[in-house]
């Protein structure tokens, strides 16, 4: 007998909030045969959020941007749409939902906004369709969608290996404060990795252990001294003006500035919330945040 996808009873709507990430350390190994790089990275979730609301109907997956941005696709190219289709296929149901997406994470800024949206969609779809998907299966679906998606589900701090999808949570008692200098134009992550391959060749990934140790130190200056990003040279090669942004942040009093992931957002570690306000006031196009924070989660109010 031929089986047909099922339509399941559901709640009328759910809302999920999901954080941005930065890489406190991003070690990048040589290009693998599968087109990815082996990574040794320390993820850190920060309090810049996207918010995704999932509503019933019409048939299919329809995405509506509540903060319009021409750089954000609303079709199958959007990871949130792909995540819902993947979850529906796993559950053998026909999706019939509208996704309302409010962006608070910089677009194409090296802070994994698209991956965050995919994680939010998995949590929202699982709740709306009452699937109770095992966490390990959600992680598997997340890893199939993108290397940063599993961490967006987890949040907090974590060591990422493989292509970033293999996660080891890191726990420590200290909150960190950040100022982010955002750019008006994003950067292509594949372009940055290609430039890094050109510059670095087959250099092994740098060691994340100094950052992991620094997370256990109460003084944020220990973490500032340990921050590192193997992609930074490539990002600066493609966007030389970021040299001036990094210099300006440190001149404004930040403990250390680093390119966030593949950029072009620059992350500045500061001492505390008051110091963050002081540094941000001396820079342009800034956002203030703290971390670590939890991963994708339902909003209940």
TrEMBL record:
<feature type="binding site">
    <location>
        <begin position="106"/>
        <end position="116"/>
    </location>
    <ligand>
        <name>ATP</name>
    </ligand>
</feature>
<dbReference type="InterPro" id="IPR014721">
    <property type="entry name" value="Ribsml_uS5_D2-typ_fold_subgr"/>
</dbReference>
<comment type="pathway">
    <text>Isoprenoid biosynthesis; isopentenyl diphosphate biosynthesis via DXP pathway; isopentenyl diphosphate from 1-deoxy-D-xylulose 5-phosphate: step 3/6.</text>
</comment>
<keyword id="KW-0547">Nucleotide-binding</keyword>
<dbReference type="Pfam" id="PF08544">
    <property type="entry name" value="GHMP_kinases_C"/>
</dbReference>
<feature type="domain" description="GHMP kinase N-terminal">
    <location>
        <begin position="78"/>
        <end position="156"/>
    </location>
</feature>
<feature type="domain" description="GHMP kinase C-terminal">
    <location>
        <begin position="212"/>
        <end position="285"/>
    </location>
</feature>
<comment type="function">
    <text>Catalyzes the phosphorylation of the position 2 hydroxy group of 4-diphosphocytidyl-2C-methyl-D-erythritol.</text>
</comment>
<keyword id="KW-0418">Kinase</keyword>
<keyword id="KW-0414">Isoprene biosynthesis</keyword>
<feature type="active site">
    <location>
        <position position="21"/>
    </location>
</feature>
<dbReference type="InterPro" id="IPR004424">
    <property type="entry name" value="IspE"/>
</dbReference>
<dbReference type="InterPro" id="IPR020568">
    <property type="entry name" value="Ribosomal_Su5_D2-typ_SF"/>
</dbReference>
<dbReference type="InterPro" id="IPR006204">
    <property type="entry name" value="GHMP_kinase_N_dom"/>
</dbReference>
<dbReference type="Pfam" id="PF00288">
    <property type="entry name" value="GHMP_kinases_N"/>
</dbReference>
<dbReference type="InterPro" id="IPR036554">
    <property type="entry name" value="GHMP_kinase_C_sf"/>
</dbReference>
<protein>
    <recommendedName>
        <fullName>4-diphosphocytidyl-2-C-methyl-D-erythritol kinase</fullName>
        <ecNumber>2.7.1.148</ecNumber>
    </recommendedName>
</protein>
<keyword id="KW-0808">Transferase</keyword>
<keyword id="KW-0067">ATP-binding</keyword>
<comment type="similarity">
    <text>Belongs to the GHMP kinase family. IspE subfamily.</text>
</comment>
<dbReference type="GO" id="GO:0016301">
    <property type="term" value="F:kinase activity"/>
</dbReference>
<feature type="active site">
    <location>
        <position position="148"/>
    </location>
</feature>
<dbReference type="InterPro" id="IPR013750">
    <property type="entry name" value="GHMP_kinase_C_dom"/>
</dbReference>
